[in-house]
Amino acid sequence: MSQSFRVGTRGSALATTQTGWAAEHLAQLSGLAAETVLVKTEGDVVTGSLANLGGTGVFAAALRQHLLDGGCDLAVHSLKDLPTVQPGGLVLAAIPPREDVRDALCGRDGMTLDELPEGAKIGTGSPRRAAQLRAYRQDLVIVDIRGNVPTRLGRVKGMGDTLDDGSVGRATQGDLDAVILAAAGMRRLGLEKHITQYLDPSIMLPAPGQGALALETRTAGTDHAELDQALARFDDLHTRLQVEAERALLNALEAGCAAPIGALARVQENKLVLDAVACNPDGSEVMRRSAAAPLADVAAAQALGRELANGMLADGAAVVAGLA
């Protein structure tokens, strides 16, 4: 039997960095060597708004097909990019400890959100971020942007030419006052020096699963007993319970990443606490709710997410967020 395993990844700098981190840990835990397999996905080559592309899953489909076809032994995803319904034949074998969950503002001249001038232009491709920004400051001009992390940073005045690896949306430079990015991705790429403010979840709740990686395998396993054991050891229970609650909420709201929904679970003493927000896309209305349950297993975490979602739906969340 081969003494190495193949890890499928997208080709962006962030994807390969995340995959390299996970593969290195799995190699140490399993005693096997890791090989990286690059897979180009629709989201990497199709231009236009992410929301209009279908949002959730646009980066994952080709990678998942490659895994199902046996082209790799496992795939590494940003969990927030995955649809909430797991496809047949594949399983999330490990969710390692989560990185920083927050959204990060990268502003010109070191500015924070409150310091940006009236009418400042902020770039984001996320309706969730856009809606919460508008709710916080109605005067901001939100610009829909695409591209990898360095490309987006290059849109901010004064950031200069940032490294670029051929991303969608890279034609324009220096036209914005700030961009919003996931803190986890910035930290994984070593670009946290460009962050001018970590946005508190009271201002901006992150996407369900933000900051977490998902290591996906075929349901039958990987053909490497050592790798299967390593994946089980790499799984972090608290992270898994948090993201299961968040994703169950998103699923019950029947929303994807193109919807202005934020959710964040945390372990507090012996409880799992889940905060959620549903926003009108224009920021004019915001519904925030919270619920808690005893810290238990995945089924209990999912039940917490569904319970909070059902309460929000009863209070009109679908109308608020434009899901109805």
UniProtKB/TrEMBL annotation:
<comment type="function">
    <text>Tetrapolymerization of the monopyrrole PBG into the hydroxymethylbilane pre-uroporphyrinogen in several discrete steps.</text>
</comment>
<protein>
    <recommendedName>
        <fullName>Porphobilinogen deaminase</fullName>
        <ecNumber>2.5.1.61</ecNumber>
    </recommendedName>
</protein>
<dbReference type="Pfam" id="PF01379">
    <property type="entry name" value="Porphobil_deam"/>
</dbReference>
<dbReference type="InterPro" id="IPR036803">
    <property type="entry name" value="Porphobilinogen_deaminase_C_sf"/>
</dbReference>
<dbReference type="GO" id="GO:0004418">
    <property type="term" value="F:hydroxymethylbilane synthase activity"/>
</dbReference>
<dbReference type="InterPro" id="IPR000860">
    <property type="entry name" value="HemC"/>
</dbReference>
<dbReference type="InterPro" id="IPR022417">
    <property type="entry name" value="Porphobilin_deaminase_N"/>
</dbReference>
<keyword id="KW-0627">Porphyrin biosynthesis</keyword>
<comment type="subunit">
    <text>Monomer.</text>
</comment>
<dbReference type="InterPro" id="IPR022418">
    <property type="entry name" value="Porphobilinogen_deaminase_C"/>
</dbReference>
<dbReference type="Pfam" id="PF03900">
    <property type="entry name" value="Porphobil_deamC"/>
</dbReference>
<dbReference type="InterPro" id="IPR022419">
    <property type="entry name" value="Porphobilin_deaminase_cofac_BS"/>
</dbReference>
<feature type="modified residue" description="S-(dipyrrolylmethanemethyl)cysteine">
    <location>
        <position position="257"/>
    </location>
</feature>
<feature type="domain" description="Porphobilinogen deaminase C-terminal">
    <location>
        <begin position="241"/>
        <end position="313"/>
    </location>
</feature>
<comment type="similarity">
    <text>Belongs to the HMBS family.</text>
</comment>
<keyword id="KW-0808">Transferase</keyword>
<feature type="domain" description="Porphobilinogen deaminase N-terminal">
    <location>
        <begin position="5"/>
        <end position="222"/>
    </location>
</feature>
